[in-house]
C-alpha cells in the first residue's frame, strides 16, 4: 500500500499554480526540435501553432558541435565529430555525421521498411555498405605528447559517451607487462596514440638502444588521468580482445567498465567460418590492409622490441587499431540483433570477460619440488623406453626422428599400414602408431609410450616452473574465449586443459597444483554432462529415466544392449558400454571402436548397430542434426549459439565426414560449454552474497577449480554445486538433472 499511495504532504518549493501545464514557446520549441532533427514532432508542433517551420532556424546551441577547437589544435588530429548514436550504437539513420564520420560517404536510405521503420537486418546491411566507402586516413591520427592534450581527448570521450582503446604492452604476458602506449578512438578517423615508454634510437637494438624518447607523458600521470574515464559507467569502452587489456590495466590499478569486445561479437556471429583477428576483419569488412606487428618490429636479427619503434610509426600502427576497433563495432554490433544472436553475446560472452580476467590474475600455486621429482622420474622412464626401442630396432635410433622410425617400422620390420607423405617419407603419425599398437605390435606401442612421457616432461614438469610469476609466486594461465567453434574456452601460456587425466602420469602432474596454507582446492565437475544433454536434446526416454533415477548409465546401457543384469555386471561389459556411450557422442566409427576396445571391426560394427537399434532416437538426432547443418551451414546449442561448419558439403569425403561428426557433437559440447559459462558468470556474485571467501581459479572443460579457506569448505561446497546445477535456468529448463561432483583437498589430483 505504501508503494502505491500518493504522498499529499510533500513540501513544495514553488507555488502549486506554477506547476500547471502551460502553452509552450512554440518558436523556441520548433528551433529545438529542428536542431534535434525530430522531423515529425517539428511538423506537428508547427501545425498546432500555425507557424511555418521554414521561417525558424535550428537552435545552434543544441546542434552537435563540429570540430572542437581543443582537438583541432592537437598536432595531426582531425576534428572529432558527433557520434549520433542510435539503439545499436550507430549513427542515426539517414543522417550525415559530422567531422569525418564515414567521411566521403552519404548514409544510405535503404535500411527502412515500407512502414518507415528500420529493421535490424536492413540497418546492419546499410552500415556494412557505408563502412566500405569510409577510407582510413593514417595522416589524421594524433600523437598525444602533453597532459593538456590528453585531458582534451578524455573530455571528448566523456562527451560522446564511447571510446575505443588498445593497450600496447612491453611483453605478451599481461601479468608482467608494462604499458608502452595507449591508443584511443572516439569516431572514425578520430584516433590518437599516447606514447608512454618508447626509447630513442640507439646504436642498435636491445641493450644498445637509446634512453627514453622525448616528449612523452609519464605513465603514472597518463594512467591517473585515464582512470576516471575507464571506470566511468556512463562511457562505453570498446576493445578487440579486451580481456588482455583488462588484465594489464588491472595490474596498474585500473578497473574498466562497461565494455564491448569486437572479437567476441565477431565470434558469436561467425564461429567456425571466419577468422576474428583484426587484420582479417579489416580485410573482409573494409578491404583494408592494416599495419602488421611484424612489419612494425621486423624479423630475425633485425627485429626490435615495440618500445624501440619510433613514436611516429607506433602512432600509425596503434591509432589504426583503435580506429579499426570502433569501425568494427559500428558494423558488427547491429548484426547481433539482425541474426538473432544478441542474447548469446550479452549473456554468455561479454559478462565473462571480467570474470576470466580476475581468474587469470589470481593464478594458482604449484609445488616445484613435486615437479622436479616428476621430471627426474620421467627422464628415467624415457631413457629406459628409448633403450627398449633401440633393442627392438637392433640398431641405434632416435625415437624423436620420424624418418628413422618409418625406416625401421615399414622398411626393416615390414609392419603393415605404411603410408608415405608428400615428401616421400614414411608417415609415423599418432593415428598410424595407435592402429599398429592396437593390432598388437610392440615397437610402435613403445614409441607411443616414449612420446607421451617426453611430452609430459617437456610441456609440464620442466616448463611449469618457468611460468611462476616472480611477484605472485603463482602460475597464471591465459584463457581465449574466441578460439573454438563450440564455445569451449582454451588456455595457453601454460595450457592447463591438456594435462592427461586418464593416465597415472597425468594425474601425478595434477598433484603439483596445490592450495596455499590455510586453504583447500575445491574441484567441482559436471558428471557426464554431454550424455545428459544427449538424453535431453535427442529425447531418449530410457536414458532420461536412468539419469532421473540416478542409475549407473553405463551399466544401464550394457544391460539394455547385452541383456546382462546390472547387479554383479562384469567390469569388461560395462567398459564396452561406456566406450560406446562416449564414442557415439563423438561420432566414433566401427574402426575407432574396434581399436579402443581391442576387438574385431565386425564385432564393433555390430555393437554400434545394436546401440542405434536399442536407442533409435539417437540415430534420429544425428541424422536431423547433420541434415540441418547441410542446409544451413551451422548447428545451434540449446542457448542459441551458432556453430558453423561450412565444409560439411566439401567434396573431399574425409573432410565432409569430419565436419558431420563435429556438427553432431557441437550441439552437445557447445551446450555444455554454455552451461559452465553461465555458472562462472553467476558464481562470484552468489559467493559474495553468501559472504564466502572462495575464489574461482581455473576452468578446465567441465570442471571449475576454487581456492577456499579451510573453515569455509563445508559451507562453500553446496553453494558451488547449486550454482553449477542450476546454471541453465531460467533460460532453459532441463528434464534431465545435472549432477556436480565437488571435493576439497590439498592438491588438484586429490580434489578431482
Order of strands in the sheet with most strands: 1-4-3-2-5-6
Poorly predicted spans: 64-115
Number of helices: 28
- Provide mean pLDDT, rounded: 86
Query: What is the overall silhouette?
Result: globular
Radius of gyration (Å): 31 Å
Proportion of beta-strand residues = 5-15%
Let me know the largest β-sheet.
Answer: 6 strands, mixed
Structural class: alpha+beta
Q: Which bin fits the share of residues in helices?
A: 40-55%
Q: What is the count of β-strands?
A: 16
3D structure, described in words:
- A hairpin with a 2-residue loop joins strand 3 (179-187) and strand 4 (190-195).
- By secondary structure, the chain is α+β, with helices and mostly antiparallel strands.
- Helix 1 (26-36) packs antiparallel against helix 2.
- The longest helix has 37 residues, at 653-689.
- The strands form five sheets. Strands 1-4-3-2-5-6 form a six-stranded mixed sheet, with helices on both faces. The protein has a four-stranded antiparallel sheet with strand order 14-15-11-16. It has a two-stranded antiparallel ribbon with strand order 7-10.
- The chain is globular, with a radius of gyration of 31 Å.
- Residues 64-115 have low confidence and may be disordered.
- It contains 28 helices and 16 strands.
- Helices cover 47% and strands 10% of the residues.
Amino acid at each position: 500500500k505504501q508503494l502505491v499511495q500518493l504522498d499529499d504532504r510533500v513540501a513544495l518549493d514553488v507555488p502549486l499554480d506554477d506547476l500547471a501545464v502551460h502553452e509552450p514557446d512554440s518558436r523556441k520549441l520548433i528551433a529545438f526540435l529542428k536542431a534535434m532533427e525530430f522531423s515529425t514532432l517539428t511538423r506537428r508542433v508547427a501545425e498546432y501553432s500555425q507557424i511555418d517551420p521554414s521561417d525558424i532556424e535550428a537552435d545552434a546551441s543544441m546542434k552537435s558541435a563540429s570540430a572542437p577547437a581543443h582537438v583541432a589544435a592537437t598536432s595531426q588530429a582531425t576534428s572529432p565529430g558527433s557520434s549520433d548514436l542510435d539503439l545499436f550504437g550507430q549513427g542515426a539513420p539517414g543522417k550525415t555525421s559530422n567531422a569525418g564520420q564515414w567521411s566521403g560517404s552519404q548514409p544510405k536510405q535503404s535500411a527502412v521498411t515500407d512502414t518507415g521503420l528500420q529493421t535490424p537486418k536492413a540497418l546492419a546491411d546499410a552500415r556494412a555498405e557505408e563502412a566500405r566507402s569510409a577510407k582510413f586516413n593514417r595522416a589524421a591520427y594524433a600523437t598525444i605528447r602533453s597532459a593538456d592534450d590528453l585531458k582534451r581527448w578524455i573530455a571528448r570521450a566523456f562527451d560522446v559517451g564511447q571510446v575505443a582503446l588498445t593497450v600496447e604492452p612491453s611483453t605478451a604476458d599481461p601479468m608482467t607487462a608494462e604499458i608502452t602506449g595507449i591508443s584511443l578512438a572516439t569516431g572514425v578517423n578520430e584516433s590518437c596514440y599516447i606514447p608512454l615508454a618508447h626509447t630513442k634510437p640507439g646504436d642498435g637494438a636491445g641493450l644498445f638502444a637509446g634512453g627514453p624518447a622525448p616528449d612523452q607523458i609519464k605513465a603514472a600521470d597518463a594512467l591517473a588521468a585515464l582512470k576516471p574515464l575507464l571506470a566511468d559507467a556512463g562511457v562505453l569502452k570498446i576493445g578487440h580482445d579486451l580481456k588482455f587489456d583488462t588484465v594489464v590495466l588491472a595490474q596498474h590499478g585500473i578497473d574498466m567498465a562497461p565494455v564491448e569486445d569486437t572479437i567476441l561479437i565477431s565470434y558469436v556471429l561467425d564461429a567456425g567460418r571466419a577468422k576474428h583477428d583484426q587484420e582479417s576483419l579489416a580485410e573482409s569488412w573494409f578491404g583494408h590492409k592494416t599495419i602488421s606487428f611484424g612489419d612494425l618490429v621486423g624479423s630475425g636479427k633485425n627485429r626490435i622490441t615495440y618500445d624501440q619503434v619510433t613514436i611516429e610509426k607506433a602512432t600509425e600502427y596503434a591509432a589504426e587499431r583503435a580506429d579499426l576497433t570502433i569501425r568494427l563495432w559500428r558494423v558488427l554490433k547491429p548484426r547481433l540483433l539482425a541474426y538473432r544472436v544478441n542474447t548469446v553475446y550479452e549473456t554468455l560472452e561479454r559478462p565473462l570477460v571480467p570474470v576470466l580476467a580476475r581468474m587469470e590474475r589470481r593464478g594458482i600455486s604449484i609445488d616445484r619440488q613435486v615437479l622436479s621429482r616428476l621430471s627426474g622420474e620421467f627422464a628415467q622412464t624415457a631413457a629406459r623406453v628409448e633403450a627398449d626401442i633401440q633393442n627392438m630396432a637392433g640398431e641405434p635410433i632416435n625415437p624423436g626422428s620420424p624418418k628413422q622410425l618409418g625406416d625401421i617400422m615399414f622398411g626393416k620390420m615390414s609392419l603393415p599400414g605404411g603410408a608415405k607423405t608428400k615428401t616421400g617419407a614414411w608417415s609415423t603419425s599418432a593415428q598410424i602408431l595407435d592402429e599398429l599398437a592396437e593390432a598388437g605390435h610392440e615397437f610402435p606401442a613403445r614409441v607411443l609410450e616414449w612420446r607421451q612421457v617426453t611430452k609430459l616432461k617437456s610441456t609440464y614438469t620442466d616448463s611449469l616452473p618457468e611460468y611462476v610469476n616472480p611477484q605472485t609466486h603463482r602460475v597464471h594461465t591465459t584463457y581465449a574465449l574466441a578460439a573454438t567453434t563450440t564455445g569451449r574456452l582454451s588456455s595457453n601460456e601454460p595450457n592447463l586443459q591438456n594435462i592427461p587425466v586418464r593416465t597415472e602420469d597425468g594425474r601425478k602432474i595434477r598433484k603439483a597444483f596445490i592450495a596455499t596454507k590455510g586453504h583447500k582446492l575445491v574441484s567441482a565437475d559436471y558428471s557426464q554432462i554431454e550424455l545428459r544433454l544427449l538424453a535431453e536434446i535427442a529425447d531418449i526416454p530410457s536414458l532420461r529415466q536412468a539419469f532421473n533415477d540416478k542409475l549407473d548409465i553405463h551399466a544401464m546401457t550394457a544391460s539394455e544392449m547385452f541383456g546382462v543384469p546390472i547387479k554383479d555386471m562384469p567390469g569388461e561389459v560395462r567398459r564396452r558400454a561406456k566406450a560406446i556411450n562416449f564414442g557415439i557422442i563423438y561420432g566414433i566409427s566401427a574402426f575407432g571402436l574396434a581399436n579402443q576396445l581391442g576387438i574385431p571391426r565386425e564385432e564393433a560394427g555390430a555393437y554400434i548397430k545394436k546401440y542405434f537399434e536399442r536407442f533409435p532416437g539417437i540415430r534420429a538426432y544425428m541424422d536431423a542434426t547433420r541434415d540441418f547443418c547441410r542446409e544451413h551451414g551451422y548447428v545451434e546449442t540449446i542457448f542459441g549459439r551458432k556453430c558453423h561448419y561450412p565444409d560439411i558439403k566439401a567434396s573431399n569425403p574425409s573432410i565432409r565426414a569430419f565436419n558431420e561428426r563435429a556438427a553432431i557433437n557441437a550441439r552437445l559440447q557447445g551446450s555444455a560449454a554454455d552451461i559452465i559459462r553461465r555458472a562462472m558468470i553467476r558464481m562470484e556474485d552468489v559467493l559474495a552474497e553468501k559472504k564466502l571467501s572462495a575464489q574461482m581459479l581455473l576452468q578446465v572443460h567441465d570442471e571449475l577449480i576454487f581456492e577456499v579457506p579451510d573453515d569455509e569448505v563445508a559451507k562453500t561446497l553446496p553453494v558451488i554445486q547449486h550454482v553449477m546445477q542450476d546454471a541453465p535456468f531460467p533460460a532453459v529448463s532441463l528434464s534431465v538433472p545435472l549432477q556436480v561432483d565437488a571435493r576439497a583437498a590439498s592438491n588438484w589430483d586429490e580434489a578431482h
